[in-house]
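Lecture 7 notes: from sequence to structure.
We start with the chain below.
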Amino acid sequence: MIANTLPKSLADNPRLDRWLQFRPDGRLRVCVGKVEIGQGIVTALAQIAADELDVPLARIDMLSGDTDEAPDEGNTSGSQSIEIGGASLRMVCAEARAVFLAEAAVLLHCVPEELAVAQGAMLWLGRPTGQSYWTLAPRVSLAREATGAVAAKPRAARAVIGRSVPRLDLPAKLAGGGYVHDMALPGMRHARVLRQPRPGATLAALDEAAIRKAAGGEMEVLRSGDFVAFLADSETVARRAAVAAPAYARWEGVDTLTPAMGEAMWLRGLPADDRALGAPVAAHSGLLKHQASYSRPYVAHAALGPSCAVAWMRDGHLTIWSHVQGVYPLRQSVAGALRLDPASITVHHAHGAGCYGHNAADDAALDAAAIAQRRPGVPVRVLWQREDEFGFEPLGTAMLVRLAASLGPDGRPVDLTTEIWSGPHVGGARAAAALLATRVLPDPPPAPVPNEPSEPNPGAGTRNAVPYYDIPAHRILHHFVARPPVRTSALRGLGALPNVFALECFLDELAVFSKTDPVAYRLSLLADPRARAVVQRAAAMAGWERRGAAGSGTGLGIGFARYKNRSGYAAVVAEVVVEQAVRLTRVWCAADAGLAINPDGVVNQLEGGIVQAASFVLKEQVVLDGAGVASRNWDSYPILRFPEIPEIETVLMDGGDEPPLGVGECTMGPTAAAIGNAVAHALGARIRDMPFTRERIVAALA
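Predicted C-alpha cells for the same chain:
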C-alpha cells in the first residue's frame, strides 16, 4: 500500500515504533497524538490496541499528546480521533502483530499461520510456547514503516472492540485530581495576566503600588511591552492582584462595541469574501417558492473549569503542560511567539476541565510560557479567572443562514439556495500572531488575516450546508466575514449546528406547506438506507404517531443529519412543553456510528452533544457592550442546568462490518433542529433565531 492511501495520521507518522513500545517491565506503551478532552477517546484507542494485539487492557499504558514521544496527529478535532487516529493505530497494531508472529515462527521452526496470540503470549497450534511480545521484543525491531498490507482482525475475532469498558481517565478525576489545574511542582509560582481590553489597545499607565496593596501579600509585577503578569507564591495573592488590576490600568486606543454587534444580522453589514459553490443559479418559472432565515448568536465554550497551564524553562529548554487540542501546533505557535526553536520546547498534554473546541487553552499556555521564559528556573502556573475565560477566549461565531427553495407540484424542493454569513471558525486563530499574549509582547508579528475553505465537506462555515437529501439542484453562497467584532474560533461542530438547524427547520416548514407529515416528508427525500433507518427508528422510539395538531403547547419535532455528510448518522426527536419558556421534557436519539469501539463511550458522546445543543438553543448568547464581552459569569451567560436536562433515550444501530464513524459532534445539529421543530409544533408558530428566549416566544405568538 502506498503511503498516500494510509490514514492521514499514519501517513504522517509511518514508523511503527513511534506508536508502540513493548517495554522490559512487561508493559505495552501505546503512543497517540489524539488527546483526551472529555470524549473518552484514549480509552477507545486502548481498546483498539488491546484487541488487535491480543494484549490485556490492564497491561497497556497510554501516552497521548506529547511532542517528545507521541506521533504528530495535529489537533484533536472534527470527530476524527477514531475515524483517522483509530484507523491508523489499528493498522499499526495489525502490522506489529504480523512482525512478531513472523519472528516467533522463525524461532519455533513453524509457519506463522500455525501461531496465535493470547494475552500477549504466543501459542503454537493452541499450546503455550514460552514466547510473548516481551520475550521477542529484543529480537524484533519496529523501526520500520507501515505498509498498510496487513488486514485487521475480522468482526468475529474481536474480543475488546465493541465492549463497553470503564474510561481510563475517570478514577483520578473522580478522586479530585487528574487535571492540569491540580499540578504542583517544586517551587512553583502562581501567575495571573492583565488582559488587553480590545485588540490594538496600548497600556498608557499602571498603578503598581495600588495593585500591590490590593494583593495583600508578596507579589512581583512582570512587565514586557504591554504584557503584564502578577507572580506570587500564593495563588490567593496573585488572584487578588489580577482582580484589582483593571481598575488601576489605563489603556488607550480601545475601540468600542455595541450590543447590536452581537447579533448574527450584524454580519450582513460587514465586508465579506463572497464565494459561490454548487449548481449555477437556476431560473424557475411557475413553481411555488419558499424562503426563510435562521440565526445563531456568538456563543462561548463555557468550560466548567477556566483555562490553565504550567510552564518551566530549565537550561534553555521550555516545557509546557496544557489541555490544548494539539501539542505540536501549540509548540509551533509558542516558538513563533517567543522566537524560540521548536526543538527547544516540549509540550505535554494534561487534562482540562471540559472543552469541545478551541477555547483559551492555547492562550493560557502562551501566558505561562512567556512568563517562564522571563523567569527561568521557576515553574509557573497560570490559571485564568472565570471572567477572563468568558471575556477573552475565542468564541463560536454568529451565523445567519437564509434558505430559498423552488417546489415541484408534489411540494418537494427541486432547487435550493443556501446563503450563509459567518465569521471564522478556524482560520488562523491558533497561529502565534493570533494568540493574546503575542499581541502585547514587544515587537509582535503582523496579525494574521483569517481565511478558511468554503468547500462543504468537511468545510467550516459551510459544514453540513449541502443537504443530504435528494434535491436535484443546490448551491451555496458563502459570505465569509474575516473580521467580525470579536475573536472567533472552533466550537463543537463548527458551522454544522446552524446549518443543520436551518435546513431541518426549513424542511419542516416545507412539510407543513405541502400538508405532509415531517417524517414522511424526509423519507421521501432520503435514498441512503442508513439515513432512512435512523429517522424511522427515532420516530418509532418517540411514538411519532401520537403527534397531534400544532398549537397545543406540547410539541414533538425531529431533526436528522449525517455529520459532514460522511461521518456519523443521527436522528433526534424532541418533546417540549412551551408556557412562558421552553421546557425540554424528553429526547430520543437513533444513531449509526458504524463500528462502535466503546458503545458506552459513543452513547455518552451522543447524549453530551444533545445536552450541549439544547443549551445553545434554549439559553446561550454572548452579550456585548462598549468594553467587549459583557456576559462574564454564569448569571449573565446561563447554560442548561442539571434539573433542566430531559430524559434521554439513545439507541445505536448495528454497525456490522462498517468502519467507525465520528460521533462526537453528530447530534448537535439534529438536536437543535428537533427542538426548533418541536417548539414550532407546540406554538403553531416558528422561532428561527437562537436562543429561544421568552421575548422570542412572545414575538412568535404575536
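Points to note: The chain has a mean pLDDT of 93. DSSP finds 17 helices and 26 strands in the chain.
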